[in-house]
Amino acid sequence: MSRRPVDARLLRSASAARSYLALTVLAGLAGAGLSLAQAGLLARALAGAATGVGIGALAGVLTGLAIVLAGRAALGYLGETTALRAAAKVKSQLRQRLITRVTEQGAGSTADRGELAVLATRGLDGIDAYFARYLPQLVLAALVPVAVIIAIGLTDWLSALMIVISLPLVPVFGALLGMRSRAQASRQLAALARLGGHFLDVVQGLPTLRVFGRARAQESTIDAMTSQYRSATMATLRVAFLSGFVLELAAALATALVAVEVGLRLLAGHIGYQAALFALLLTPEAFLPLRNAAAQFHASAEGAQAAERVLDLLDEQAGPAAGPAKPRPDSRQCRPGGTQLRLGTPQASMALDQPDYLRRCAVTLTDVTLAYQGRAEPALAGISLQIRPGEHLVLTGPTGAGKSSLLALLLRSAAPTGGRIEIAGRPLADLDIGPWLAQLAWVPQHPHMFATTVAGNIALGRPAATRADVTAAARLAGADNFIRALPDGYDTNAGERGLSLSAGQRQQIALARAFLRDAAVMLLDEPTAHLDPVSTCLVRESVRAVAADRTVIYVTHQRDGIAALGTELTLGGGQVAQVVRPPGDLQARLPTGTA
User: Fold this and answer.
1) Is the pTM of this model over 0.90?
2) Considering its fold, how many domains does the chain have in total?
């Protein structure tokens, strides 16, 4: 990160605001000229009053002083208004370029959406202090002290010499503290970007975290990242306050030296009263622009860092990103193996006090209806179904038939608007949701990948799993080959939402995540939607092997090759339209009297 007081790229990007910046600087210079006139008029008025000049004789001086004060106020308002307009123009220009860069060419490999959100909002908002106050003060700090020294030198060269000697202390101290402040601001912005990115990742993946029992674990992580941001912010403020104290002290000491030498010479009669007052009134004006520039440097550090980061992203080459190597399809033919379908046992009568009661207890849906607000037709309309332990059900049907809605009921992310869902005679709503979700493994249509390693994404449901367990699950999902081909293998960071991986690779990692979790029930929503035919066949074989002793609900639009997966239930209009049982299965899956 640049440590220069002014980033040339930022000035070049401010083409839309140059006229406003020029007007701000001109207003500041005009205000500085009026400050010189104000000091001269005030010194003349005070000197005249001290020597007994009447108020009538000073009327012209006082009138001029009032005009000067009004002019300074008007110029101050003009400078502040134009400076804020300049900042608004630059922010709009940078935000537009950043959004265009992201939407048309992607964010690149060095930023995620959380960081981009922070940069485009809170980060660039901090640019107001940079353009509205710091840059104009930087120009004034270079010109105004020179003008003040010349004005004082024409009246009292010794006071001007004292200012020349003591003036460099302020920029030296300001530069030393500024480097420290810039480093602290960089840490603060990085901590905020990490916090924003992680929070966005957690919110997007909250359904997955909830099902896999990892939502609570994120509280401590977010708390730790919040503490880091708080510490970085307090460190930045501490440096800013310390720098303000040091600069004020340096300016006060320098002003005091001038005041002492002027006072001694005034007592000795070596300088006139009006000249002494003029020097004393103007001495603080020599240090004021430097103090203001240093103070605004600290105030604008965060915004400047954010703007530089945005410019770094805009400067990145937007060449075609090299995607991860795609796994080569297995040349072996897909041979349908045995179904390994287990019909399970009848409804269990034991109490629901065991952690894995779904391995023994059936789930019964009786006249279940699910209607969404704003939707004319219900997603499920009076469906009755019994899911017994160890059964494999394949849900098919057109889009909108209610397949994913049935899974939503089992995941308890939706509640039925009619009918009953019971387990061993008890309503599902009466059971603790934590132990219930602990028995489920879920692969959604669009699985969420977290910004952690590939191994960490697979082990989401079993954080204590060994690397051998993770590898075995990945091998079952057909993901081991392409994972090993990644730059760091299983330790490769998947990136935000897994965008460094293809859709099929994310699907296979999600399958490995479900295989690794020792769950009684597996809910697979279009698990092979993004896979090629060979990979689809291999995944289905793996599902049959892994789920031999588990209950499986498999949602798919694909009809080829699903006969061996289990009992096929075709949904239509929110109801079971057709039941096709696998060969040899003569037991009914539906309650008595249903279609």
Assistant:
1) no
2) 2
